[in-house]
Design a protein that fits this description.
The protein has four helices and 13 strands. The chain has 255 residues and is an alpha+beta fold.
Length: 255
């Protein structure tokens, strides 16, 4: 028996880095599906060219040979195929090859939650969502893969993309703002106001050391104050309130 209808396997990727407060820090999207919904408007030629040149996403087909073989086995009762329920991320930058069996430099792997969503007809798209958190240090994530085991196993697909910089340690700070305050030696210096996450055990030294590793010397706060940060009803930091307190007794709010 022969069927004329062709079945095509494609993949779509949504990668989102969120800050501790839930706001989006950076994101990457690839394919015709975004947030589980088929895009109504596809990228034009120049947009696709730009994404390719800037490496927002590279390689059209990210399905591996092992992934294609596994998908073919799903149609047969005599063949057992392990579910691809794990997502792994890494820092490798080598382009995709269908013969690849692992990420180039895997750093973390998490089990995902799978659902079926509609792209063209009901339940024609498998969606797997995983959250990565609780790690230490910083990473420039550049690759993602889908696996059928918590470690090792077969890789169904791999996608590379422009680096998503993740700072796993930054989650302790809930709110922060910096203003210039008077200083007898330098005229004025940066001062940071920090409202830590409940339960966090941050010190002034922790904040200053953290900034020294990431900022130019002149940008590093010389002083740190912990507590509530005054904000407007819309959530905007009222820096003028902080400046007024710090510059009390001076004729002008600048040296």
């Amino acid at each position: 028996m022969q069927f004329n209808e062709k079945i095509k396997i494609t993949h779509g990727i949504d990668l989102i880095v969120r800050r501790k407060d839930g706001s989006i820090k950076a994101e990457r999207h690839y394919g015709d599906i975004k947030d589980g919904v088929k895009r109504k408007i596809k990228d034009g030629f120049f947009t696709r060219l730009y994404k390719r040149l800037t490496k927002k996403c590279i390689m059209i087909d990210g399905i591996t040979n092992a992934g294609k073989a596994a998908m073919a086995g799903l149609d047969l009762a005599d063949i057992t195929v392990n579910a691809f329920d794990w997502l792994a991320i890494g820092t490798g930058t080598t382009g995709f090859l269908a013969t690849q069996t692992t990420l180039i430099t895997e750093t973390h792997r998490e089990a995902g939650t799978g659902t079926r969503v509609m792209t063209t007809v009901a339940n024609d798209t498998a969606q797997l969502v995983a959250t990565f958190s609780g790690y230490a240090g910083t990473e420039a994530i550049t690759e993602i893969g889908k696996f059928n085991a918590a470690s090792g196993g077969d890789m169904q697909m791999r996608q590379t993309f422009a680096a998503l910089n993740v700072d796993w340690d930054q989650g302790d700070v809930f709110e922060a703002t910096v203003i210039a305050v008077p200083d007898e030696k330098w005229g004025e210096v940066p001062k940071a106001f920090i409202n830590p996450k409940p339960g966090a055990s941050l010190t002034e030294k922790d904040i200053i050391n953290f900034c020294r590793k990431r900022l130019a010397r002149f940008k590093v706060p010389k002083k740190v104050e912990f507590g509530e940060i005054p904000k407007t009803s819309t959530g905007k930091v009222m820096k003028y309130v902080l400046r007024k307190k710090e510059w009390a007794g001076y004729e002008k709010g600048v040296h």
